[in-house]
Specification:
heterodimer; A: Rna Polymerase Sigma Factor, Chain: A; 9 helices; B: mainly alpha; transcription regulation (chain A); RNA_pol_sigma_r3/r4-like (chain A); RNA_pol_sigma70_r4_t2 (chain A)
């Protein structure tokens, strides 16, 4: 029981990071909290499979992202967003102000394919190394690096954070935006 | 940060940002925004519902054990 009590304390300690990961991943606080809740329940029931002394956060992040993906696949079947209003709003706003604010950033983040978004968050905000992120995502280190690069490049395009003088509305960005609407409801 | 061959093969043929290396400035801005968003959530107090959830999981398990004995 002592062991389980300390496991519980560790779970509590991990909640802030799990929430931050879930919110940035889904772009939606309610959905994020549902994910965290499911993660905690699963972690509790699978506590026997957690090896003491190994990276608890990485283990929990793995559970959370696997839960996210199984829901994402479900949602994808249910919700086909063909509206595009979020994207339209986003690009007109960026055009008007010519700079990126947090609202733009959140919206742009949800436009990334989830695997790229996830890699960028794990490496760029959660503080995992590319090696750790590759374990969490179950892929090669090179794949993580490539996803992070692509995520940065796409965000830069969407948000136009380069000077913006050389290129106006970008056909590639448009194409990217129009092919990644399935998750846009999360905004 | 260099583009990988995987990336070049990935079909990102966009102009501007995707061509060659991203400017350090753009990367910094993106990193800053992302960390800001992340930290905002990470520093919020833990919602009570999660503490209640763990407590009830623990109690349920203890109850289970007592029943088994």
């Amino acid at each position: 029981m002592q062991v389980k009590a300390s496991f519980k304390e560790s779970l509590v300690g991990a909640i802030p990071n799990l929430r931050a990961f879930a919110v940035t991943l889904t772009g939606n606080v309610d959905r994020a909290d549902d994910l965290v809740q499911e993660t905690l329940v699963k972690a509790w029931s699978k506590s026997d499979s957690y090896e003491e002394g190994t990276h608890l956060h990485a283990w929990l992040f793995t559970i959370l992202r696997n839960t996210f993906y199984s829901e994402f696949r479900k949602r994808k079947r249910e919700v086909e967003d063909t509206d595009g209003s979020i994207v339209a709003k986003l690009s007109s706003h960026a055009e008007q102000t010519g700079k990126m604010d947090l609202v733009d950033f959140k919206a742009a983040l949800t436009q990334l394919p989830p695997d790229q978004r996830e890699a960028l968050i794990l490496v760029g905000a959660s503080g995992f190394t590319c090696e750790e992120a590759s374990v969490i995502c179950g892929c090669a280190v090179g794949t993580i690096k490539s996803r992070v690069n692509r995520a940065r490049a796409k965000l830069t395009q969407i948000l136009d954070v380069e000077s913006g003088d050389d290129f106006g509305p970008d056909p590639t960005a448009q194409a990217i935006l129009s092919t990644n609407l399935s998750d846009a409801k999360a905004v | 940060m260099e583009m990988t061959s995987d990336e070049q093969a990935g079909g990102d043929k966009g102009r501007g940002a995707v061509r060659g290396k991203l400017s350090t400035d753009a990367q910094d801005k993106i990193g800053e925004k992302l960390r800001g968003m992340y930290e905002t959530v990470a520093t919020e107090p833990i919602p009570e519902k999660f503490l209640d959830l763990l407590k009830s999981l623990e109690e349920a398990e203890q109850g289970q054990k007592r029943d088994d004995e």
